[in-house]
Hints:
The chain is of the alpha+beta class. The chain is 29% helix and 32% strand. Strands 1, 2, 3, 4, 5, 6, 7, 8, 9, 10, 11 and 12 form a twelve-stranded antiparallel beta sheet that branches. α5 runs antiparallel to α8. The C terminus is likely disordered.
Amino acid sequence: MKKEQSSFKRKEEKFVIIDSTFDEIREELEKHIPVHNYEKDCLITSIKTTYMDSENFDIFKEYLEGRKYRYKIRFRQYGYDNKFSDELWAELKVKHKKISYKRRFLLPEKLYQPFINREDIFSELRKVNKGLPGFAKLYKLMTELIKINNFIPVLLTSYDRIAFQKKSKRIRITIDKNIHHKALHNSLKQCKLRILVFESKILGRRPKWYKKLEDRLSLLPQKRFSKFATGINSTYYPARGTYNFYTNFAEIKKKPAMVMKSLELINSTLKLETAESEESAFGMKVKSKTN
């Protein structure tokens, strides 16, 4: 696997596509922005993502509550032509005031199980991630979050993706198809979504061609959309409906203690909040301040 960028800060917009086909969207986008290939001459990338949560689905419930400050841990594996890399990206994704922050490091497939079992494999991973900025800090943070919450793998999501990206990396657009969910904990249920998902990540102003594209392709903007949430809904709580994110199902208005402790740890490590703004965000004081 290529050692690509490991730190991201993006504002995301998501759309569901009904009227336009995958090929129609690809052809339209190629007029304005180049395809970003996973490997040379590889147009479509296959992705497998394993999500972690507690047995009580606390991370899922935080999403349902629509918290302004939340996070998830996932493991992503890339491939093409039905062949997957023997390395994964271990990722921490934090949503903070509508901005997504992602930090990640490489995890050999053979070390995946030891890592989620909280075995000490720091020295082995340090060799794999030699020269990766912030690796030691991120490794410590993710292992502590897994320990605090007793996280386990709960969902495997697979799909095919085509990505478009400017050289400046200011604009990135992805289209996902063949989205398939499989439960990994106390359930054998599987589900395939019958939609295409269009996601744009743009820093700064949107170009004129992009604004016209939304109308031309009949993109349906989503106030909220998550592969993780649709996966949990469809495989563990099918009675709720795959795309239902608006009920009081979570039944928690107060943030659980382990979630509070986790966010304190994330904030002290990544410095996303000042103590003042953190208190106004969800009634919680944090000692660390933004640099």
